[in-house]
Write a sequence for this structure.
């Protein structure tokens, strides 16, 4: 892990020297830039890998190449905390978690991370409530007394499960909660050791695709007056359909929710670096679609849908130049 201290030390030095700047290291004429993603069974990880490759190929600051790497991490909540502590240069964070982190609500109650800054919105993450077809679970209310994973510790599903249960007249004490990653959760459902899991990710999600190849899948609909009430309380949730045939055996569209994934940094990142990495992404969005279908939804037209967190000045400068920010 790169030491992340002494932002003031970032400067142009000889190839053999090493300088640290909020996680940016200058070595052999390269600036090192990390991107925290999520588990390998989700969407953050493959898109983060392609973004790191793009930055490494396209971004240059003061004549030095930016060398980016994608790191598997604990997803939205954990990623926000990494940024709050300046332990990494950037991360993918769901818009609802970014809003909670910046404002000190939800899992960040009383401890706002006011140093978080947006680089740009990415793509819609679809909420998928997954179970086996033979569990008898047909609605959120049917989860009472059942086991469900709300994702690995630090994931965004933890707060979502609380909210879904609440608007349906339940609490976390009404379910048997598991804290497994996407891949671990679907493996447990396959084996009959877990009834259901929440997965918020770009679709198709590889862990769910794998599950549907060998087991009868059911995606529970998230619609109706309870969901409408949740949307009043949490306006960043949009109603979307999970298209028919997204997964094997899923013959019809399923109503559910989606929230934007956002690329986030912190306020100590140098403006020139933020400008160049933002430019590298939004001027090469077609390449992102080559690694995952959700990459095709990353576009300049929706880059500003980041919620309440302010933009980093470097990202804002680029987006203003392109007319995305008026």
């Amino acid at each position: 892990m790169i030491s992340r201290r002494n932002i003031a030390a970032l400067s142009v030095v000889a190839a053999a020297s090493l300088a640290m700047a909020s996680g940016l290291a200058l070595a052999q004429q390269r600036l090192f830039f990390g991107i925290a993603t999520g588990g390998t069974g989700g969407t953050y990880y493959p898109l983060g890998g392609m973004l790191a490759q793009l930055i490494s190929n396209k971004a240059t600051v003061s004549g030095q190449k930016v060398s980016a790497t994608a790191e598997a991490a604990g997803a939205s909540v954990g990623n926000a905390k990494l940024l709050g502590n300046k332990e990494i240069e950037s991360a993918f964070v769901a818009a609802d978690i970014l809003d909670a982190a910046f404002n000190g609500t939800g899992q960040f109650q009383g401890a706002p991370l006011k140093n978080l800054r947006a680089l740009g919105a990415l793509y819609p993450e679809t909420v998928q409530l997954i179970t086996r077809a033979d569990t008898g679970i047909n609605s959120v209310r049917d989860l009472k007394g059942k086991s469900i994973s709300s994702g690995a510790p630090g994931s965004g599903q933890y707060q979502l499960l609380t909210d879904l249960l609440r608007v349906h007249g339940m609490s976390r004490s009404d379910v048997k909660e598991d804290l497994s990653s996407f891949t671990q959760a679907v493996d447990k459902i396959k084996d009959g050791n877990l009834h259901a899991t929440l997965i918020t990710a770009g679709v198709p999600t590889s862990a769910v695709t794998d599950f549907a190849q060998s087991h009868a899948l059911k995606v529970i609909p998230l619609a109706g007056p309870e969901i409408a009430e949740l949307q009043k309380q949490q306006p960043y949730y949009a109603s979307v359909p999970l298209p028919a045939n997204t997964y094997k055996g899923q013959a019809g569209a399923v109503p559910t929710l989606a929230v934007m994934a956002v690329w986030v940094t912190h306020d100590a990142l140098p403006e020139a670096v933020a400008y160049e990495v933002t430019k590298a992404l939004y001027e090469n969005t077609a390449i992102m679609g080559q690694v995952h279908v959700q990459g095709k939804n990353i576009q300049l037209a929706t880059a500003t849908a980041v919620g309440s967190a302010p933009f980093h000045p470097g990202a804002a400068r680029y987006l203003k130049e392109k007319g995305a920010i008026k």
